[in-house]
Amino acid sequence: MSRNESPGILYPPASIAVIGGGQLGRMFLQAAQRMGFRAGVLSATDDAPGAQVADWSVVSPPDHLPGLRRLSEQAEAITVEFENVSAPALRWLAKRRLVRPGWRTVWVSQNRIREKSFLKEHQIPHAPWRAVLTAGDLDEAIKALGLPLILKTASSGYDGKGQIRLERAEDASSAWSSLGNVPCVAEQWVSFHAEVSVVVARGFDGSAVTYPVALNRHERHILDSTVMPAPVGPIVSMNAQSLSLAVAQALGTVGVLTVEFFLTEAGELLVNEMAPRPHNSGHLTIEAAVSSQFEQQVRALAGLPLGQSDLTRPAAMVNLLGDLWADGEPRWDAAMRSDPGVKLHLYGKRTPAAGRKMGHMTVLDPDPEIALARALAARRVLTAR
Ligand code: AMP
Q1: How confident is the model over 35-84, as pLDDT tens digits?
Q2: Considering the domain 192-382, what is its CATH architecture?
Q3: 253 contact partners, CB below 8 Å, separation of at least 6
Q4: Beta carbons of 300 and 208 less than 8 angstroms apart
Q5: In angstroms, how far apart are the furthest CA atoms of the chain?
Q6: Does ligand 1 come within 6 angstroms of the Cβ of 273?
Q7: What is the spatial distance between Cα 346 and Cα 84, in angstroms, rounded to a whole number?
Q8: Which CATH architecture group holds 128-188?
Q9: Whose CA is nearest to atom 2 of ligand 1?
C-alpha cells in the first residue's frame, strides 16, 4: 500500500477514484494520472467521458451496493464529481475508505432547502426564500417575497432545469405543478449586476486556498463563458473569497468547493448556490493557474498539501455546447489557425445535443477582457461556413 506513515495521506501510485464519469470526473482522473496515481471511476456507462480515460472503471449506478463494494475494494480514497450521490452511500463508503468531501458537505449541497437553511444558520448573505412543501406555503411565499419570484425544485436541479420564474399569483399552482409539485424553494427575484463564483480548495488539516473571483455569463441558464480574474474591484473580490472560505470551513469540506454568487447593483454579494466539487467556472485553471482545481481535488483527496492557486495569467473560457454541431462537425482547424493561443478541451461525448456540454476552450491573455474576446472569436470561427 502506498500510504506514508501519517494517517490520511496517500502517495502515488495509490489507487484513488471518483464517483461519476462526466467531464468533471474525466479532468479529475487526468490530473490524478499526471501525479502518478492509479485513477478509477464509478461510472454509469463504460463509454462515459471519465470511463474513457480511467485506469480502471466500475460500471454501476452511483448508489448500488454491489458497485460501491467493488469501488471500495479497488480505491483507497474516493471523491465525487457531482452532488447527487446519496449520503447513505457515502457514509457506507466512508466506513471503509477515505471519502472526501465527507457526506455532510454533499448532503447539504444536494438539496436547496438544506443549503439555504445552512446559509441562514451561518449568516452567509443570500436572497430571501421560503421552503415550499404545500400549495399554502407557495401562497405565503408570494406574500412574503413578492413577485416575480423563482421557484426551484429542492433537489436534482442543474443548468436551470427544475426551475421556473413566477410572475403572477394566479399562475402559482400551474407553475408548481409544472415542477411536479415536489418540495421546492421559492426565492426572491434578484436583479443582479453580475454572477461570480469562487473555487475553494480545503485540505484535511483545515488549510484552504481560493482562486481569484470568476465572472460568469449564462445563456439559457447554462454557463456560456468565464473570465478570471473578474473585473470586480478589490473589496468585492476579498468579500467573495472570504465568504467562500467561511462556507467551506463551516461545512468542514475537505476537497474542492465552489460558491456561486449574485453581485447586485449595490455591490452586495448573495450566495446563489454551492457545489462540493470543481466547477465549470474553474476549468480555465488547468492552463491559467499554478495548480488547477482538479489537481487541488487530487491533493486534498490524497491528504497532500494544497498547491498554489495563483493565476500565472488572466484567462477566459467559453463552453462548447452540442448546438455547435447542428450543421456538422465544428471546424477545429479553422479556430486553431485563427488563434494559436486557443486551448481546446473535448470531453469525448459521442452524441452532441442542444445544451449538452461537449467541451470548452481557454485563452490566456494579459488582459482578461481580451482573453474573452479572443475565446468568443475562436468559437465563432468553429461554425463559420
Ligand atoms: P441556479 O440553478 O440556482 O444556479 O440558477 C440558474 C440561473 O438562473 C442562475 O445562474 C441565474 O442566472 C438565474 N437565477 C437563479 N436564481 C435567481 C434569482 N433568485 N433571481 C434572478 N435570477 C436567478
Answers
A1: 999 999 999 999 999 999 999 999 999 989 999 999 999 999 999 999 88
A2: 2-Layer Sandwich (3.30)
A3: 101, 102, 105, 200, 202, 276
A4: no
A5: 65
A6: yes
A7: 24
A8: 2-Layer Sandwich (3.30)
A9: 160
